[in-house]
Design goal:
Chains A, B: Its EC number is 1.-.-.-. Chains A, B: Keywords: Flavoprotein, FMN, NADP, Oxidoreductase. Chain A is of the alpha+beta class. Chain A has eleven helices and five strands, in the order ααβααβααβαβαβααα. Chain A folds into two domains: 178 residues, NADH Oxidase; 39 residues.
Chain lengths: 245, 245
C-alpha cells in the first residue's frame, strides 16, 4: 500500500480544531486541487463560497442544527452546485438554455462531490482535518439567502477545515463483498454479512463511548429511515430552477 | 506543493490503455480506499459492480454511446447509488422505510461520487489512468437490466481503469476567482473572467487538435445546454423508487 492509499484509509471526521490559521494561499491550493477533479462534460459546476465573516458563520452553524464547529473551525467552505454560470455562458452566445432537467441537477451535484473530495484529500495530505456538513440542508433556503445565492445555484454541503485537536479512530466500513459485486447485483450474502458487520460497529461504539452508546449499523439506518428526510428539499430545489422535469 | 497535491493536479482522462492486467487484489485495495471516503450520516450508499464478462462489457459500451474503451479497458466498474441495502436494514428491524425523498436521492448519489473520487485518486497514485463514464445514463434502463439492479439501486456512472497508453495534457480549469467566492455569491467579475478563460480553452484545443477543433468553454456549454438533457432520467428514477417527493 502506497502513501496516498495510506492517507485515504486514515480518513475520519474531525470536529475539534487547533486555533492555528490556514493561510489564504493554502486554501487557494486546495481549491485548485479540487478543480482538477473530473467534471461531467466539462461543465465545471462547482462554486465554493469561503465564509470568513463571523456573523455569517454563527448563522450557518445555527442552520446546520447548532454544530458549533461550523462557526469555530479555522475555515469553512460551502460547496454550491452552480448552473448560473452556464446561463451566463448561454447569454454570451445568445443561446436559450434548457434547464430544470433531473440529469442537470445530478451532474452539477456530482461535480461538487468530486471537487470536494479532492479538496478533502489535498487538505488531509497537509495534515489538516475536516468534516462535511450536510446539515446545511436543514435550513437550505436560509443558507441560500445568507450567501445570496441566485437562481440555479444551491448549497450541496459545507466543509469545516483546520488542524486536528482530536484523534478519533477510523470507523469500520461495510464488508467488501457487500459493496463490491461481480457482473450483476447479487445480494444473497448481504443479510449475513451485515449481521456480522453490525457486531463490529457495536464494538466500535462500545469502545469509543465507554459503553454508553449501543448501536449497530442496521439499527442506526433503520431508525433514521422511518422518519421523513428533509421533505422541503424538492420544493426548495424546484423554486431555484432545479428538478422541474 | 506536496506529492499528493501534485498527483491531483496531474489528473486527465485516459481513454487508451495498455493491455496489462489489474490484479483483483489491487482492485480490492482501490475499493477499500473508496469506502474510506466520508459518507452522509454513515449511509454507505455506494455499491460497485465490477464488470468482467466480455458480452456485458460490449453491451455496456453500446449503452454509453459506443465508447469502445468501456469494453476494452482492463477494468470497468459501475458505481451504483444503493438504498436496497437500507431497505434490508429496515427489514432486519421490522421498521417501515420512508423512501422516495429527493434528499435521499441526493445523499446516495453524493456518496457514490465521494467514494469514486477516492478510488480515482488511489488508482492514479498507482500509476493507473481512468475515465468516468456518465454516458451509461444514455440507456440507464438497459444498463440497470443488464446488471440486474433491483429497485432502489441506480447506476450513477462507470469508470474505466488501466495503465495509460497515452499522455494527454491536463485541461485548463476556470479561473480561481470564478469558482471561489468570499462570503457571498458575487458574479460581477465572472463575465470578463470567462471571456479570458475562453481564449485559454481555445488555445488548448487548437494545440491539441492541430487547429481542427475551435472551441471555447462558454461556446461548448451553450451548445450543450440548448438541447434537452437525458429527459428519461426523472421517469426512470421514479420507476426505481427515487425522487417521488
Amino acid at each position: 500500500m502506497n502513501a496516498v492509499i495510506e492517507l485515504l484509509k486514515q480518513h475520519r471526521s474531525i470536529r475539534k480544531f487547533r486555533p492555528d490559521a490556514i493561510e489564504q494561499e493554502t486554501l487557494n491550493t486546495l481549491i485548485e486541487a479540487g478543480q482538477c477533479a473530473a467534471t461531467s462534460s466539462f461543465i465545471q459546476a462547482c462554486t465554493v463560497i469561503q465564509v470568513d465573516n463571523p456573523t455569517l458563520r454563527t448563522e450557518l452553524a445555527e442552520c446546520a442544527g447548532n454544530q458549533a464547529y461550523v462557526a469555530s473551525a479555522p475555515r469553512f467552505l460551502v460547496f454550491c452546485a452552480d448552473m448560473r454560470r452556464h446561463q451566463l455562458a448561454c447569454e454570451m452566445h445568445g443561446a436559450e438554455m434548457q434547464s430544470g432537467y433531473t440529469e442537470q441537477f445530478l451532474t452539477a451535484s456530482l461535480d461538487c462531490a468530486l471537487f470536494a473530495q479532492n479538496v478533502a484529500v489535498a487538505a488531509e495530505s497537509m495534515g489538516l482535518g475536516l468534516v462535511y456538513i450536510g446539515g446545511l440542508r436543514n435550513q437550505i433556503e436560509r443558507v441560500s439567502d445568507l450567501l445570496q445565492l441566485p437562481e440555479l445555484v444551491y448549497p450541496v454541503f459545507g466543509l469545516c477545515l483546520g488542524f486536528p485537536d482530536q484523534d478519533p479512530e477510523t470507523k469500520p466500513r461495510l464488508p467488501l463483498n457487500v459493496v463490491l459485486k461481480q457482473d450483476r447485483y447479487d445480494d444473497t450474502q448481504d443479510h449475513d454479512a451485515i449481521k456480522a458487520y453490525d457486531e463490529q460497529v457495536l464494538e466500535y461504539y462500545r469502545t469509543r463511548t465507554g459503553g454508553t452508546k449501543e448501536m449497530t449499523w442496521s439499527g442506526q439506518i433503520s431508525e433514521m429511515l422511518v422518519k421523513e428526510a428533509r421533505p422541503h428539499m424538492l420544493p426548495y430545489l424546484q423554486s431555484r430552477g432545479f428538478l422541474k422535469q
